[in-house]
Design goal:
This protein is mostly helical. The chain has one domain. It contains eleven helices and no strands. The longest helix has 28 residues. The chain is globular, with a radius of gyration of 19 Å.
Length: 304
């Protein structure tokens, strides 16, 4: 078990570091080297093909036709909807602000569970949600549009909405995942997302100067990094961490995205230090921690 926990911790750390760097890589590419919708199409299609190829070298997983269709539809709506909104939002705001809203996902998960699945709302959880949402509100209301954020308010709102959509996707996929294998889930959800991406791209058009001539190696290599590491490898590593680690530990690893994206943004000049952003980050981290710790303690005290 110790080896499994070590493997799970390493998997989560690597996955979240890649996810943090993914924010900065996408900001570099959007919208100069590709449009947000083309970027979403690249990610969904590449990952779908990659997971189908990888599954050929893995033991077959049992599943039903119903589960496959549910996963396909979930990917077509939830996974693609998340990427559609997030990449569009990121193209208009800064990496740090977009990561702030990504960090709110555990709070949305809890609120959805309260309203639709009758989960108990304790005082600590309510305080955590209030603190976290205060941080998000500060970020939305204080950030101004500038040379680094063409439309900060709209970008932040789209990133906020994307985190809500992804929270719904997480809840529904987790319920299906209890009966199927992780690779089956990845194959069919990304296939659904890829179909949605192709349809939308056919309607809106394909914009990818990164692939035009004369060829530019730097943006192309950045795109390959996004497709191989944060999009494919990161999603493959997540189930390992979720299987062997407590919810609180998983939530704490989620802060790595925010930390990595913030440090990389300041080094690369993709964002400027802001006390209001620091306030928002601090409040959201405290809020998410309180929600996750309360949930963890509550599950530990439930009778077996």
């Amino acid at each position: 078990m110790k080896n499994k926990k070590l493997e799970a911790n390493l998997s989560m750390a690597v996955s979240k570091v890649f996810s943090g760097l993914n924010v900065n890589a996408l900001k570099f590419l959007l919208p100069l080297w590709m449009s947000p919708l083309t970027g979403a199409a690249f990610r969904c299609t590449f990952a779908a093909v990659a997971f189908w190829v990888i599954s050929c070298f893995m033991p077959p997983e049992k599943t039903t036709a119903k589960d496959k269709w549910l996963l396909f539809l979930l990917g077509a709506w939830g996974l693609y909807g998340f990427m559609f909104l997030y990449l569009t939002g990121l193209s208009k705001t800064t990496p740090v602000s977009s990561s702030i809203f990504t960090s709110l996902q555990p709070i949305w998960v809890f609120l959805i569970m309260v309203f639709f699945y009758k989960e108990k709302a304790t005082r600590k959880k309510i305080i955590g949600i209030s603190i976290g949402l205060t941080g998000a509100l500060v970020c939305i209301l204080t950030q101004q549009s500038d040379d680094l954020a063409s439309d900060a308010f709209l970008g932040n709102m789209l990133c906020l909405l994307s985190s809500v959509v992804y929270a719904v996707y997480l809840i529904l996929s987790q319920r299906i995942l209890t009966a199927i294998g992780a690779m089956t889930m990845l194959k069919y959800t990304f296939s659904g997302a890829a179909v949605s991406a192709v349809i939308v791209t056919l309607i809106t058009g394909f914009e990818a100067p990164v692939l035009s001539m004369p060829f530019h190696w730097t943006p192309f290599l950045v795109l390959m990094f996004v497709l191989i590491f944060p999009t494919t490898l990161s999603y493959m590593l997540l189930p390992v961490g979720l299987k062997y680690l407590k919810t609180t530990v998983v939530a704490i690893y989620g802060y790595l995205i925010l930390i990595v994206a913030t440090v990389a943004s300041l080094i690369l000049g993709q964002d400027r230090f802001s006390w209001t952003q620091m306030f928002a980050i601090l409040f959201i981290c405290i809020g998410v921690y309180l929600v996750e710790v309360a949930e963890s303690k509550e599950s530990c005290t439930k009778p077996a």
